[in-house]
Design a protein that fits this description.
By secondary structure, this protein is of the alpha/beta class. The chain contains 23 helices and eight strands. It is globular. Bound molecules: iron/sulfur cluster (2 copies). One iron/sulfur cluster (SF4) binds next to helix 3, helix 4 and helix 6.
Protein backbone atom coordinates (compact mmCIF):
# COMPACT_ATOMS: atom_id res chain seq x y z
CA UNK A 1 0.00 0.00 0.00
CA UNK A 2 1.37 3.43 -0.92
CA UNK A 3 1.63 5.82 2.02
CA UNK A 4 2.86 9.40 2.33
CA UNK A 5 3.03 9.82 6.04
CA UNK A 6 3.59 13.15 7.75
CA UNK A 7 7.17 14.09 8.62
CA UNK A 8 6.22 14.26 12.29
CA UNK A 9 5.24 10.58 12.06
CA UNK A 10 8.38 9.56 10.14
CA UNK A 11 10.58 11.40 12.65
CA UNK A 12 9.89 8.74 15.28
CA UNK A 13 10.88 5.07 15.41
CA UNK A 14 7.30 3.82 16.05
CA UNK A 15 6.12 6.08 13.21
CA UNK A 16 8.62 4.53 10.81
CA UNK A 17 7.53 1.08 11.96
CA UNK A 18 3.91 2.07 11.23
CA UNK A 19 4.96 3.10 7.72
CA UNK A 20 6.62 -0.28 7.14
CA UNK A 21 3.49 -2.06 8.34
CA UNK A 22 1.25 0.04 6.11
CA UNK A 23 3.45 -0.62 3.09
CA UNK A 24 3.32 -4.38 3.70
CA UNK A 25 -0.47 -4.45 3.23
CA UNK A 26 -1.38 -5.40 -0.34
CA UNK A 27 -5.07 -4.59 0.17
CA UNK A 28 -6.20 -8.12 -0.70
CA UNK A 29 -8.96 -8.22 1.95
CA UNK A 30 -8.38 -11.84 3.01
CA UNK A 31 -8.33 -10.60 6.61
CA UNK A 32 -11.94 -9.42 6.45
CA UNK A 33 -13.08 -13.05 6.35
CA UNK A 34 -11.87 -13.70 9.91
CA UNK A 35 -12.64 -10.32 11.46
CA UNK A 36 -15.45 -10.62 14.04
CA UNK A 37 -16.66 -7.04 13.65
CA UNK A 38 -16.69 -7.25 9.86
CA UNK A 39 -18.70 -10.46 10.15
CA UNK A 40 -21.21 -8.80 12.48
CA UNK A 41 -21.50 -5.40 10.79
CA UNK A 42 -20.60 -6.10 7.15
CA UNK A 43 -19.07 -2.64 6.77
CA UNK A 44 -15.63 -2.35 5.13
CA UNK A 45 -14.72 0.33 7.68
CA UNK A 46 -15.30 -2.22 10.47
CA UNK A 47 -12.86 -4.74 9.00
CA UNK A 48 -9.05 -4.77 9.17
CA UNK A 49 -8.47 -3.59 5.60
CA UNK A 50 -10.76 -0.60 6.11
CA UNK A 51 -9.23 0.19 9.49
CA UNK A 52 -5.73 0.08 8.02
CA UNK A 53 -6.87 2.54 5.39
CA UNK A 54 -8.36 4.83 8.04
CA UNK A 55 -5.15 4.70 10.07
CA UNK A 56 -3.17 5.54 6.94
CA UNK A 57 -5.35 8.61 6.40
CA UNK A 58 -4.78 9.67 9.99
CA UNK A 59 -0.99 9.31 9.64
CA UNK A 60 -1.03 11.17 6.33
CA UNK A 61 -2.63 14.11 8.08
CA UNK A 62 -5.99 13.87 6.32
CA UNK A 63 -9.04 15.01 8.29
CA UNK A 64 -10.41 12.39 10.67
CA UNK A 65 -13.87 12.43 12.18
CA UNK A 66 -15.74 10.86 15.06
CA UNK A 67 -16.80 8.21 12.53
CA UNK A 68 -13.16 7.15 12.12
CA UNK A 69 -12.79 6.95 15.89
CA UNK A 70 -15.96 4.86 16.11
CA UNK A 71 -14.76 2.31 13.55
CA UNK A 72 -11.37 2.03 15.27
CA UNK A 73 -13.02 1.79 18.71
CA UNK A 74 -15.03 -1.18 17.48
CA UNK A 75 -11.83 -3.14 16.81
CA UNK A 76 -11.35 -5.81 19.47
CA UNK A 77 -7.57 -5.95 18.92
CA UNK A 78 -8.14 -9.71 18.74
CA UNK A 79 -5.51 -9.97 15.96
CA UNK A 80 -7.35 -12.70 14.08
CA UNK A 81 -6.56 -10.61 10.99
CA UNK A 82 -2.82 -11.02 11.67
CA UNK A 83 -3.10 -14.79 11.71
CA UNK A 84 -5.02 -14.70 8.43
CA UNK A 85 -2.93 -12.13 6.57
CA UNK A 86 -0.71 -13.73 3.90
CA UNK A 87 1.58 -10.67 3.86
CA UNK A 88 2.40 -10.71 7.56
CA UNK A 89 0.85 -7.30 8.30
CA UNK A 90 1.32 -6.57 12.00
CA UNK A 91 -2.06 -4.99 12.47
CA UNK A 92 -1.94 -5.12 16.30
CA UNK A 93 1.16 -2.91 16.42
CA UNK A 94 -0.36 -0.52 13.91
CA UNK A 95 -3.57 0.06 15.85
CA UNK A 96 -1.66 0.27 19.13
CA UNK A 97 0.41 3.05 17.58
CA UNK A 98 -2.66 4.82 16.19
CA UNK A 99 -4.81 4.74 19.32
CA UNK A 100 -3.22 7.66 21.22
CA UNK A 101 -3.09 9.68 17.98
CA UNK A 102 -6.79 9.22 17.34
CA UNK A 103 -7.48 10.24 20.97
CA UNK A 104 -5.68 13.53 20.25
CA UNK A 105 -7.24 14.05 16.83
CA UNK A 106 -10.83 13.35 17.89
CA UNK A 107 -11.34 14.28 21.54
CA UNK A 108 -13.88 12.10 23.31
CA UNK A 109 -17.01 13.26 25.07
CA UNK A 110 -16.37 13.91 28.79
CA UNK A 111 -18.46 10.88 29.87
CA UNK A 112 -16.51 8.57 27.56
CA UNK A 113 -13.19 10.02 28.76
CA UNK A 114 -14.21 9.55 32.38
CA UNK A 115 -15.29 5.93 31.81
CA UNK A 116 -11.92 5.09 30.26
CA UNK A 117 -10.00 6.95 32.95
CA UNK A 118 -11.96 5.13 35.65
CA UNK A 119 -11.24 1.73 34.09
CA UNK A 120 -7.52 2.46 33.88
CA UNK A 121 -7.30 3.74 37.44
CA UNK A 122 -9.72 1.47 39.25
CA UNK A 123 -9.16 -2.02 37.84
CA UNK A 124 -5.40 -2.21 38.57
CA UNK A 125 -5.79 -0.52 41.97
CA UNK A 126 -6.01 -2.04 45.44
CA UNK A 127 -9.57 -0.72 45.70
CA UNK A 128 -10.80 -3.11 43.00
CA UNK A 129 -10.94 -6.30 45.10
CA UNK A 130 -12.84 -4.69 48.02
CA UNK A 131 -15.21 -3.09 45.53
CA UNK A 132 -15.94 -6.48 43.96
CA UNK A 133 -16.52 -7.94 47.42
CA UNK A 134 -18.98 -5.14 48.20
CA UNK A 135 -20.71 -5.75 44.86
CA UNK A 136 -21.05 -9.46 45.67
CA UNK A 137 -22.60 -8.64 49.04
CA UNK A 138 -25.44 -6.73 47.35
CA UNK A 139 -25.41 -8.70 44.09
CA UNK A 140 -29.06 -9.71 44.23
CA UNK A 141 -30.12 -6.07 44.54
CA UNK A 142 -28.12 -4.83 41.57
CA UNK A 143 -29.65 -4.15 38.15
CA UNK A 144 -28.92 -6.97 35.66
CA UNK A 145 -26.37 -4.98 33.64
CA UNK A 146 -24.31 -4.20 36.75
CA UNK A 147 -24.80 -7.66 38.28
CA UNK A 148 -23.26 -9.25 35.19
CA UNK A 149 -20.07 -7.33 35.87
CA UNK A 150 -19.74 -8.73 39.39
CA UNK A 151 -18.26 -12.22 39.19
CA UNK A 152 -19.22 -14.85 41.73
CA UNK A 153 -16.72 -15.63 44.49
CA UNK A 154 -14.88 -18.92 44.34
CA UNK A 155 -12.86 -20.29 47.26
CA UNK A 156 -9.15 -20.31 46.44
CA UNK A 157 -8.22 -23.28 48.64
CA UNK A 158 -4.73 -24.02 49.96
CA UNK A 159 -1.54 -22.68 48.44
CA UNK A 160 1.19 -25.31 48.98
CA UNK A 161 4.42 -24.26 50.69
CA UNK A 162 7.49 -23.71 48.50
CA UNK A 163 9.00 -27.14 49.16
CA UNK A 164 10.51 -27.87 45.74
CA UNK A 165 13.92 -26.80 44.44
CA UNK A 166 12.48 -25.40 41.21
CA UNK A 167 10.50 -22.25 41.94
CA UNK A 168 8.40 -20.20 39.55
CA UNK A 169 7.14 -16.71 40.33
CA UNK A 170 3.36 -16.42 40.11
CA UNK A 171 2.05 -13.44 38.19
CA UNK A 172 -1.05 -12.34 40.10
CA UNK A 173 -2.26 -9.65 37.74
CA UNK A 174 -5.07 -7.29 38.69
CA UNK A 175 -8.43 -8.65 37.49
CA UNK A 176 -7.45 -12.28 37.96
CA UNK A 177 -6.28 -11.84 41.55
CA UNK A 178 -9.24 -9.66 42.52
CA UNK A 179 -11.96 -11.67 40.78
CA UNK A 180 -10.71 -15.25 40.76
CA UNK A 181 -7.76 -15.90 43.13
CA UNK A 182 -8.70 -19.58 42.83
CA UNK A 183 -6.88 -19.74 39.47
CA UNK A 184 -3.35 -19.18 40.72
CA UNK A 185 -4.05 -21.28 43.85
CA UNK A 186 -5.17 -24.15 41.61
CA UNK A 187 -2.05 -23.64 39.48
CA UNK A 188 0.12 -23.76 42.62
CA UNK A 189 -1.39 -27.16 43.56
CA UNK A 190 -0.92 -28.54 40.03
CA UNK A 191 2.69 -27.29 40.12
CA UNK A 192 3.25 -28.83 43.54
CA UNK A 193 2.06 -32.26 42.37
CA UNK A 194 4.47 -31.96 39.44
CA UNK A 195 7.45 -31.24 41.71
CA UNK A 196 7.52 -27.49 41.08
CA UNK A 197 6.78 -24.63 43.46
CA UNK A 198 4.83 -21.53 42.57
CA UNK A 199 5.66 -18.56 44.79
CA UNK A 200 4.19 -15.09 45.05
CA UNK A 201 6.21 -11.88 44.88
CA UNK A 202 5.30 -8.63 46.57
CA UNK A 203 5.22 -5.47 44.48
CA UNK A 204 4.08 -6.81 41.12
CA UNK A 205 0.65 -5.91 39.74
CA UNK A 206 -1.24 -5.19 36.54
CA UNK A 207 0.73 -6.12 33.41
CA UNK A 208 -0.29 -2.83 31.76
CA UNK A 209 -2.36 -4.32 28.94
CA UNK A 210 -5.54 -2.54 30.01
CA UNK A 211 -3.93 0.92 29.78
CA UNK A 212 -1.98 -0.02 26.65
CA UNK A 213 -5.07 -1.04 24.69
CA UNK A 214 -6.85 2.12 25.81
CA UNK A 215 -4.05 4.17 24.27
CA UNK A 216 -2.46 5.21 27.61
CA UNK A 217 1.02 3.98 26.74
CA UNK A 218 2.93 5.89 29.42
CA UNK A 219 0.75 4.34 32.14
CA UNK A 220 1.28 0.88 30.65
CA UNK A 221 5.05 1.35 30.72
CA UNK A 222 4.89 2.39 34.38
CA UNK A 223 3.18 -0.95 35.12
CA UNK A 224 5.95 -2.72 33.20
CA UNK A 225 8.75 -0.96 35.10
CA UNK A 226 7.13 -1.73 38.46
CA UNK A 227 6.81 -5.43 37.60
CA UNK A 228 10.37 -5.59 36.31
CA UNK A 229 11.64 -4.11 39.59
CA UNK A 230 9.52 -6.57 41.59
CA UNK A 231 10.78 -9.67 39.75
CA UNK A 232 14.42 -8.82 39.10
CA UNK A 233 15.74 -9.82 42.55
CA UNK A 234 13.74 -13.06 42.67
CA UNK A 235 15.03 -14.08 39.26
CA UNK A 236 18.60 -13.25 40.28
CA UNK A 237 17.98 -15.38 43.38
CA UNK A 238 17.39 -18.49 41.29
CA UNK A 239 13.69 -18.50 40.37
CA UNK A 240 13.15 -20.37 37.11
CA UNK A 241 10.91 -17.72 35.58
CA UNK A 242 7.58 -15.96 35.73
CA UNK A 243 4.44 -18.06 35.40
CA UNK A 244 1.35 -16.41 33.93
CA UNK A 245 -2.04 -18.13 33.87
CA UNK A 246 -3.77 -15.48 31.77
CA UNK A 247 -2.86 -15.49 28.09
CA UNK A 248 -3.73 -11.81 27.60
CA UNK A 249 -1.29 -10.83 30.34
CA UNK A 250 1.32 -13.29 29.03
CA UNK A 251 1.24 -11.59 25.63
CA UNK A 252 1.81 -8.21 27.27
CA UNK A 253 4.57 -9.42 29.62
CA UNK A 254 6.41 -11.08 26.74
CA UNK A 255 6.31 -7.75 24.89
CA UNK A 256 8.09 -5.75 27.64
CA UNK A 257 11.43 -5.96 25.83
CA UNK A 258 10.05 -4.36 22.67
CA UNK A 259 7.95 -1.80 24.51
CA UNK A 260 10.89 -0.59 26.61
CA UNK A 261 13.56 -1.01 23.93
CA UNK A 262 14.32 2.74 23.95
CA UNK A 263 14.34 3.15 27.72
CA UNK A 264 17.97 3.81 28.71
CA UNK A 265 17.48 2.32 32.17
CA UNK A 266 15.03 -0.50 31.60
CA UNK A 267 15.69 -1.79 28.06
CA UNK A 268 18.05 -4.62 29.07
CA UNK A 269 16.10 -5.55 32.19
CA UNK A 270 12.82 -5.60 30.25
CA UNK A 271 14.27 -7.96 27.67
CA UNK A 272 15.61 -10.22 30.42
CA UNK A 273 12.26 -10.36 32.23
CA UNK A 274 10.28 -10.89 29.02
CA UNK A 275 12.51 -13.83 28.09
CA UNK A 276 11.65 -15.48 31.43
CA UNK A 277 7.86 -15.20 31.11
CA UNK A 278 6.05 -18.45 30.40
CA UNK A 279 2.35 -18.78 29.73
CA UNK A 280 0.58 -21.65 31.52
CA UNK A 281 -0.10 -23.38 28.20
CA UNK A 282 3.64 -23.49 27.41
CA UNK A 283 4.56 -25.88 30.23
CA UNK A 284 3.47 -29.06 28.50
CA UNK A 285 4.85 -32.30 29.97
CA UNK A 286 6.56 -30.46 32.85
CA UNK A 287 3.19 -30.21 34.62
CA UNK A 288 2.71 -33.99 34.50
CA UNK A 289 -0.91 -33.59 33.56
CA UNK A 290 -1.53 -37.17 32.46
CA UNK A 291 -3.73 -39.52 34.41
CA UNK A 292 -6.69 -37.41 35.51
CA UNK A 293 -10.23 -38.74 35.23
CA UNK A 294 -11.87 -37.73 31.96
CA UNK A 295 -14.58 -35.12 31.59
CA UNK A 296 -16.18 -33.50 28.54
CA UNK A 297 -14.62 -30.05 28.17
CA UNK A 298 -15.43 -27.44 25.52
CA UNK A 299 -12.42 -25.24 24.80
CA UNK A 300 -12.57 -21.47 24.40
CA UNK A 301 -9.11 -20.64 23.11
CA UNK A 302 -8.57 -16.90 23.80
CA UNK A 303 -7.44 -14.64 20.94
CA UNK A 304 -4.42 -13.64 22.99
CA UNK A 305 -3.39 -17.30 23.06
CA UNK A 306 -4.13 -18.03 19.40
CA UNK A 307 -3.13 -14.80 17.70
CA UNK A 308 -1.01 -13.02 20.32
CA UNK A 309 1.09 -15.94 21.57
CA UNK A 310 0.71 -18.02 18.39
CA UNK A 311 -0.43 -20.90 20.59
CA UNK A 312 -3.31 -22.36 18.62
CA UNK A 313 -3.95 -25.92 19.81
CA UNK A 314 -1.89 -25.67 23.00
CA UNK A 315 -4.88 -25.42 25.34
CA UNK A 316 -6.59 -28.36 23.64
CA UNK A 317 -3.35 -30.38 23.87
CA UNK A 318 -2.92 -29.64 27.59
CA UNK A 319 -6.48 -30.69 28.42
CA UNK A 320 -6.20 -33.81 26.29
CA UNK A 321 -2.97 -34.67 28.10
CA UNK A 322 -4.88 -34.26 31.37
CA UNK A 323 -7.33 -36.94 30.27
CA UNK A 324 -10.20 -34.65 29.23
CA UNK A 325 -12.55 -35.37 26.37
CA UNK A 326 -11.96 -32.13 24.47
CA UNK A 327 -14.52 -30.45 22.23
CA UNK A 328 -13.30 -27.69 19.89
CA UNK A 329 -16.20 -25.48 18.72
CA UNK A 330 -16.78 -24.18 15.21
CA UNK A 331 -15.17 -20.79 14.48
CA UNK A 332 -12.75 -21.36 17.37
CA UNK A 333 -10.52 -18.60 15.95
CA UNK A 334 -13.19 -15.93 16.54
CA UNK A 335 -13.22 -13.64 19.57
CA UNK A 336 -15.76 -14.18 22.38
CA UNK A 337 -16.19 -10.41 22.72
CA UNK A 338 -14.31 -9.95 25.99
CA UNK A 339 -11.14 -8.28 24.66
CA UNK A 340 -10.01 -6.57 27.87
CA UNK A 341 -12.28 -3.61 28.57
CA UNK A 342 -14.10 -4.02 25.24
CA UNK A 343 -17.05 -5.83 26.82
CA UNK A 344 -17.67 -2.76 28.98
CA UNK A 345 -17.06 -0.16 26.29
CA UNK A 346 -18.86 -1.94 23.41
CA UNK A 347 -21.50 -4.03 25.20
CA UNK A 348 -23.75 -4.64 22.19
CA UNK A 349 -21.02 -6.06 19.95
CA UNK A 350 -19.41 -7.92 22.85
CA UNK A 351 -22.78 -9.43 23.78
CA UNK A 352 -23.47 -10.58 20.22
CA UNK A 353 -20.06 -12.25 19.98
CA UNK A 354 -20.54 -13.90 23.37
CA UNK A 355 -23.96 -15.30 22.43
CA UNK A 356 -22.51 -16.83 19.29
CA UNK A 357 -19.50 -18.25 21.13
CA UNK A 358 -21.63 -19.81 23.88
CA UNK A 359 -23.98 -21.38 21.32
CA UNK A 360 -21.02 -22.92 19.51
CA UNK A 361 -19.47 -24.17 22.76
CA UNK A 362 -22.77 -25.72 23.89
CA UNK A 363 -22.95 -27.88 20.73
CA UNK A 364 -20.40 -30.23 22.31
CA UNK A 365 -22.66 -30.80 25.38
CA UNK A 366 -19.72 -30.20 27.74
CA UNK A 367 -19.73 -30.54 31.52
CA UNK A 368 -17.55 -27.45 31.67
CA UNK A 369 -16.07 -24.76 29.39
CA UNK A 370 -12.32 -24.17 29.71
CA UNK A 371 -10.58 -20.86 29.08
CA UNK A 372 -6.99 -19.67 29.46
CA UNK A 373 -7.66 -16.00 30.06
CA UNK A 374 -9.45 -14.33 32.96
CA UNK A 375 -11.25 -11.70 30.86
CA UNK A 376 -12.80 -14.29 28.53
CA UNK A 377 -13.67 -16.53 31.47
CA UNK A 378 -15.60 -13.83 33.34
CA UNK A 379 -17.27 -12.51 30.18
CA UNK A 380 -18.54 -15.97 29.19
CA UNK A 381 -19.44 -17.01 32.72
CA UNK A 382 -21.75 -14.00 33.14
CA UNK A 383 -24.11 -15.38 30.48
CA UNK A 384 -23.44 -19.12 30.52
CA UNK A 385 -25.63 -21.94 31.81
CA UNK A 386 -22.60 -24.21 31.56
CA UNK A 387 -19.86 -23.74 34.21
CA UNK A 388 -16.81 -21.87 32.92
CA UNK A 389 -13.37 -22.42 34.50
CA UNK A 390 -9.73 -21.72 33.91
CA UNK A 391 -8.22 -24.90 32.49
CA UNK A 392 -5.85 -25.27 35.45
CA UNK A 393 -8.84 -25.15 37.83
CA UNK A 394 -10.28 -28.08 35.86
CA UNK A 395 -7.02 -30.01 36.00
CA UNK A 396 -6.66 -29.32 39.74
CA UNK A 397 -10.23 -30.45 40.32
CA UNK A 398 -9.70 -33.67 38.36
CA UNK A 399 -6.40 -34.42 40.06
CA UNK A 400 -7.79 -33.84 43.55
CA UNK A 401 -10.98 -35.86 43.01
CA UNK A 402 -9.33 -38.68 41.09
CA UNK A 403 -11.76 -41.54 40.70
CA UNK A 404 -14.85 -39.54 41.63
CA UNK A 405 -17.32 -38.22 39.03
CA UNK A 406 -16.31 -34.70 38.01
CA UNK A 407 -18.78 -32.04 39.09
CA UNK A 408 -18.56 -28.32 38.38
CA UNK A 409 -21.16 -26.07 39.97
S1 LIG B 1 -4.94 -9.76 4.48
FE1 LIG B 1 -3.11 -8.56 5.01
S2 LIG B 1 -2.41 -7.70 3.08
FE2 LIG B 1 -4.53 -8.37 2.75
S3 LIG B 1 -5.77 -6.51 3.21
FE3 LIG B 1 -5.64 -7.70 5.11
S4 LIG B 1 -3.86 -6.82 6.18
FE4 LIG B 1 -3.72 -6.15 4.03
S1 LIG C 1 -7.96 -7.05 15.48
FE1 LIG C 1 -9.80 -8.34 15.34
S2 LIG C 1 -11.55 -6.89 15.33
FE2 LIG C 1 -9.67 -5.70 14.91
S3 LIG C 1 -9.55 -5.60 12.69
FE3 LIG C 1 -8.32 -7.39 13.31
S4 LIG C 1 -9.72 -9.14 13.24
FE4 LIG C 1 -10.98 -7.26 13.18
Amino acid sequence: MRARLQQTVLATKPGREAETILRSCVHCGFCNATCPTYQLLGDERDGPRGRIYQIKSLLEGLPVTTETATHLDRCLTCRACETTCPSGVQYGRLIDYARPLIEDAVPRAPRDRFQRWLLRKLVPSRAFAPLLAAGRAVRALLPRAVRDQVPKARAAGDWPSARHATRWLAFDGCVQQAARPSINAAAARVFDRAGLSLVRVQGAGCCGALAHHLGAHAEALECARRNIDAWAAALAGGAAGIFCASSGCSAMLKDYGRLLADDPVYAGRAEHIAAHVRDATEFGAELRLAGAVGVRVAVQAPCSLQHGLRGTGRLEAALTAAGCDVFTPADAHLCCGSAGSYSLLQPALAGALRTRKLEQLAVGAPAVIASANIGCLLHLEAASDIPVRHWLEIVDHLQSTRGAPAHFD
